[in-house]
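Researcher: For the record, we're logging two predictions in this thread. I'll number them. Prediction 1 follows.
Model: Prediction 1, sequence and structure:
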Amino acid sequence: MKKTVLILVMLFVTLSQAQELKPIPQISVSGEGKIKVIPDQALITATVETKGTNVKDVKKQNDIQIEAVLKLIKKMNLNPVDYKTQRVALNPQYDYEKKKHNYNATQTLEIQLKDLSKYDELMEGLVDNGINRIDNVMFQSSKLEQYQSEARKLAMKNAKLKAEDYLFGMGQKIGKAISITDNSQNYHPQPVYARMKTMAMSDESAPRVTLAAGEIEIIANVNVSFILE
């Protein structure tokens, strides 16, 4: 009798484990959300580079030009937290033909311009006051986190729509999401296309317009697994 009870208990446990190991019907899909926005800020990286044979003169000239650039930035009332020195370098360069050393001094500034209406004035002023290398101009949005949230919501909607499309006519419905993986890449703002501004050039005193900010894309990518009902 005890042996029979033991066998029944073992059988019950085995059946219970088999039920627990039964795979859950599910579907896994990817989703993408994309937001296009017009940028309202620019991150500008600009450098003063000076060269010469006398190291002190090269450094002094570089400092004079940087000082003039910083005065321009302050005159334009940019917030002090929106610009900084990114990199300073002073390097010897040996001229094998003339058998002597030359020197190369560089100072790089990073400027966060939060008012694009000042873009042309700033860029022209930078060059006039000593900047001789614009390394990069990257357009951005001040509402990045808001747009990233919207893109994520669109990505989830897109994933659910895909899953429903795959189940069309199969008599099954999408249930709860059991796993969500965010595959979004780090955001690197880049112009998608350029909207060139034009203006009458008959008035030579009119300010030039050189900015073509275009649009930037904010993209979210997810993988979602849904239970099937």
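Researcher: Logged. Prediction 2.
Model: Prediction 2, sequence and structure:
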Amino acid sequence: MRRANQLVGKTLGELAKHIKAGISTKELDAIAEEFIRDHGAIPTFKGFPNQEGGPFPGSICTSVNDVVVHGVPNATTILKDGDIITIDCGTLLDGFNGDSAYTFCVGEVSEEVKKLLRTTKESLYLGIENATAGKHIGDISYAVQTHNEAQGYGIVRELTGHGIGREMHEDPPVPNYGRRGNGTMLKAGMCIAIEPMVTMGNKAIYMDAQDRWTIRTRDGRPAAHFEHTIAVRRGKAEILSSFEEVESIEGKIY
């Protein structure tokens, strides 16, 4: 699990070198797929089944601005200065899955958007602080929800984090809202993906009618998404994925 997740971090770091105005999301997808396969792994998302939209066509999800998650890489979505883009990446390495996501700035973005990204990322780590043996999923959920809602942001209800291991999505689900002490009790050795999905405005979302994958905010305002895969431990969770490669390239902006 560590190796698979560290590769995801390295892939996000490689993409950080290329995220700039003028590049298409399809080009980013090709870079990611080549990097993952060159390191002996399989891009888990490619061909991932969905009853609505059929197999996912990309190796990564590329979610720009008002796209919350599951943005489909394509040749016509060209990044421009002031955009934000979430790259969600998964790898399958030696039978185990890695999963992580990071929201990048493209050039100069507004302070309002930076605050959204900063708050969302902070809530991820607050959730991780509560992912220890003896606590409950609801403790993670409550920490994420209260931190973001205190800033007036929306918490997406329909999508959650998840258990992860030999399968990309396993039990238990990990919502970004809830009550302390509720839900599955965490045990040492469990691996879960914690992933706040936060909107600048209303929490309402909808699925793109054409590709049946892309999830957008209903009010058209930006959304942020950060994700780590962690192992539950006694006392302090172990973060298996990494943002170090990303932040060594673009700096710790938020």
